[in-house]
Amino acid sequence: MALPHYVVDMRSDTVSSPTIEMREAMCTAAVGDDVYGEDPTVLKLEQKSIDLFKKQAALFVPSGTMANLLATGAAQIAGVQLTTIQNRTDGTFCLDELQRKMHLYDDCHEPLTSLVIVENTHNMCGGKVIPLRWLDELISICKNKEMTNGKTIALHMDGARVFNAAQYLNESVARIARDFDSVCFCLSKGLSAPVGSVLLGSKTFIAEARRLRKVLGGGMRQCGILAAAGLVALEKIVPLLPEDHRRTRRIAQAINNLRSSNFNVDLDNVHTNILLIHMINPKISASSFAKRLAEVTQKELNENITTTDETGQEMRGIQLKVSSRDWTYARIVLYNQISDKDIEYAIKKIEYVIQEYDHNLVLVNIHGINNDFQ
């Protein structure tokens, strides 16, 4: 009986799994009632986060979504009105446009601007790290009362992958988030913990966030079992993030070397663990490309697009899972469980599929063969 195909799952770093050390720490974690502030492992995780970010207080929450929601917290969660600004490809946005969109005058017809939020690293810009110089310029606008008509503009950083940014910049997370009133980071993406995020800010801010966490049903009681994995993540997984970055760049370099007329990557701007594979040809959709990468055909098996034959094991077809929606690009995200061998197999599959597309589209252009690439 043939073995199942070999699966390399690069849809997101959210599919990462807790390490053995995390599982052991979870089994032996000291616990208490966190709603009463009495879980020693949660308190240890929050203090570790405070020390890393140099903030006054921290709060362990179930998800990054809740952390960001708590950071916006006005009007008992529901009363926030948002204004979005178009991102540049580097993850920043136009600061002049920001100033034009700020509502800073006491006009009863519009809400007052009170908070500016940035994401770092920027997910849908391909894991881009926001430049420190740009962050400093943003801060100089929001914290200058002469530029804000005397209004107080708070700053929040959605730092789900801020440790990736720190590794790329060779800076501390404290420096990156230094002048932000609040920041959150995710433990369950590239840091491999099973669940949880941490929100940081002033003591007053976190006291209110703790109250609103209860409003949202986020009181988790004996959640030291979860916090224990977070501690291991900070101590053991964070130092390994450069390996994710290196492996991501390996894939980008391989795609770039193909010089495909239908696919490309922005090799010079691969910063962290996220890579966007762009579809140049409008006849190719990201969803069809992702579907093809996840398929194994008899033809590719015949052409040895398989795992290598090690210690007499049967060679297996390669299924590569990537993320796609209605985008003009497919996204891959690396994490701790993706090994160098997985990278080798992923490159083999990507190269084969891109070259297959390139060949078939040439046939379409020359002979008018009606192949459906949508």
From TrEMBL:
The modification N6-(pyridoxal phosphate)lysine is found at residue 189. One of its GO terms (cellular component) is cytosol. GO terms for molecular function: L-allo-threonine aldolase activity. Residues 73-274 form the Aromatic amino acid beta-eliminating lyase/threonine aldolase domain. It comes from the Eukaryota. One of its GO terms (biological process) is glycine biosynthetic process. Pfam families: Beta_elim_lyase. Its cofactor is pyridoxal 5'-phosphate. Keywords: Lyase, Pyridoxal phosphate. NCBIfam families: GntG_guanitoxin. Belongs to the threonine aldolase family. This is Aromatic amino acid beta-eliminating lyase/threonine aldolase domain-containing protein. It comes from Glossina palpalis gambiensis.
